[in-house]
Amino acid sequence: MQELADRIAAYAAHRLPGATDVAVSHVDRIHGGASRETYRFRLRWREGGREVERRLILRRDPPGSLIETDRAAEFAAYRAFHDTAVPVPEALWLESDSRWLDHPFFVMEELVGFEASPQAILAPPYAQHHERLAREKWSILGAIAAADPEKLGLCGALPVVDPADAWRRELDHWTHVIDEDELEPQPIIRAAIRRLRRAPPPPPRRLHVVHGDYRTGNFLYDAEGSIRGILDWEMAHLGDPLEDLAWSINRIWCWARDGRVGGLTAKENAIRIWEQASGLRADPEALHWWELFSSVKGLAIWISGGHEYQEGSNKDPVLAFSSIWLSNAQDRAALETMGRLS
Amino acid sequence: MKPDVGKLLEIVSGKLLFEIAPTVQPSYRQSSVQITAMLLGMVREEWERSAARRVEENALLRGLFARAATRVSDTDLCRRLETAAAGADPDLRISALDASNGTLRALLIDLHAHVETQDAPWARALEDEIWRELVASTERRRFALSPF
Asked: What ipTM, to 2 d.p.?
C-alpha cells in the first residue's frame, strides 16, 4: 500500500498547489460499491503555516466490475447534492488521466464513525430505531425525487431523455447487459422483459434524478437512527422517480427475511413516506411495472458480476457470491411480482 | 472420494469463517475470506444436488416439449420441440448435463414466447404448465442463505 500512498500523495500535491509536506497514510481498501475499487486514507499537508488533515475516500476504476458505470456521473451527483437535504460526502477531485493511479478515479470526503452494513442494522443498537431509519430513508428518497435536476446542474452531467422514453432506455440498457453477459438461458427474466414491453408504464410528468441503487446497504447510519450519508451513486441517471422507489422496496432487500422492505418497515409505509416527502403519487400500476423492472435490472447486475468472475477479468469473490446468492432470489422476486409465486 | 466432499467443504468453510478470517487484516482481505467461506457453503449445497436437479429438470422439460409438440402449429418450432423431446442424458457429468439443460431452457424461452401469442385454451393451459415448471425450477436452485 505504500506505493499507492505515495502516488496518491503526488496527485494531491498536484491538486493543492499551495500545499507543502503532502503525505498520505492509513491507506486501507474497503468494500464500498462493487463497481470501483474503494480505499480510505488520510491526507496531511501544510498550508498557510498550519497543518491540515482530512480523511478521504478514493474510488478507482477497476479492470472489471459488477456494473460498468460512468464515474463522471457519480461524481456529478455527489457534487450536486452536497449541502442539500440529501446528505452526501463532499466530492473533491475527478481524474480521468490514468498516469496518476493507472486507472481513472475520484476522491471524496470520508464520513467517519457510521455504519453501512445491511446486516448490522438488524441488530442492537440499530434495531430499536427501524421506524425512524425508515422515515429518514424514504424521506430522503422523496427529496431526491422532488429535486430539480436542472437547478442542480445535472442535466448536462447526466444524459437527458424524453420522459416518455425513460422506461424504454432503462429496459433496453439492462436487457442488453443480459444479452451480452448471461452464462445460461434466463427463461423467467425473459418472460418478465416481454411482459414489460407489452404494457409500458405511464411517463413521469418531468425528468427526475434517479439514484439508481437506493437500498439498505448504500447509506450510512448512526446509533441514534439517523441517516448520515447516501452513497453509491454509480448508477445515477435522469428518469422516472418510481424506478428508485421500486428498487428500494425490491424483495431481495428484505434482509430481515420477514417481508419488511429494506429490513425496516412495511412496504405500504415506505410508499406513504415517499409520497409525503416527494409530493408525488406512486401510481400502483406504474409502480408495479417498475417493481418488475427492478428484478430485470437486479438480475442483469448479478449476471454481469458472474460473467466478470468467470471471464477472469475480476476475481473478487464478492462478484461470484452475489451472482450465485442473489440470482435465484431475484428470479423468485420476479415470479412474485408477476403473481406466479404462491 | 473420502472424506466426503460435503463434509470437507463444511469443515473448510467453517475454519475460514470462524478461525482464519478473524485473524486476517486489513478489513478488505478479511471480508474476502468471509465471503469465500460463504461461497464454499453454497458450493457444498449445490454439490449434493447438482446432478439430481439437472437430470430431473431435463426430463421434465422433455416431457413438456413432447406435449407441446402436439399442439404447436409453427413448423420450425414443432420440429425443434420433437427433436428435444426425443433426447436423453447418457452422459451424467455435470458439464454434459449443464449443456443439455442450457439447450432445453433456451427452447423453453422460445416456446413460452410463442405460446403467449396464441389465443386458444390449449395455449393458456400450456402457459400455466410452463409457469409451474419455472416456479419449480427456482425451488431446485434455491439456497438456504436465500434472502427470502
From this structure: 0.96
Nearest residue of B to residue A251, measured between CA atoms: B148
Task: Say how many C-beta atoms besides its own lie within 10 A of residue A17's C-beta.
Answer: 7
C-alpha distances in angstroms, A272 versus A141, A251, A268, A337?
12, 18, 6, 20
The whole-angstrom distance between B26's CA and the closest CA on chain A is 7
Interchain pair A194, B116: CB under 8 A: yes
Distance CA B39, CA A241 (A): 35
Alpha helices in B86-120 (DSSP H): 94-116
Among partner residues A31, A188, A329, which is closest to B148 by beta-carbon distance?
A: A329
The distance of B1 to chain A (nearest Cα, Å) reads 25
The answer, for B146 touching chain A at a CB cutoff of 8 Å, is yes
The answer to whether residue A68 scores a pLDDT higher than 70 is: no
pLDDT tens, position by position, A83-134: 999 999 999 999 989 999 999 999 999 999 999 999 999 999 999 999 999 9
Are A251 and B145 an interchain contact pair (Cβ–Cβ within 8 Å)?
no
Per-residue pLDDT at A62 = 76
Residue B38 has which C-alpha cell? 460463504
Whether A203 shows a pLDDT value over 70: the answer reads: yes
Residue A256 and residue A329: Cα distance in Å, rounded? 14
Q: A with B: how many residue pairs have Cβ under 8 Å apart?
A: 91
Query: The pTM is what?
Result: 0.95
Contacts of A333 in chain B (CB under 8 A): 148
Q: Please report the residues numbered 290 through 329 in chain A whose beta carbons come closer than 8 angstroms to any beta carbon of chain B.
A: 316-318, 320-321, 324-326, 328-329
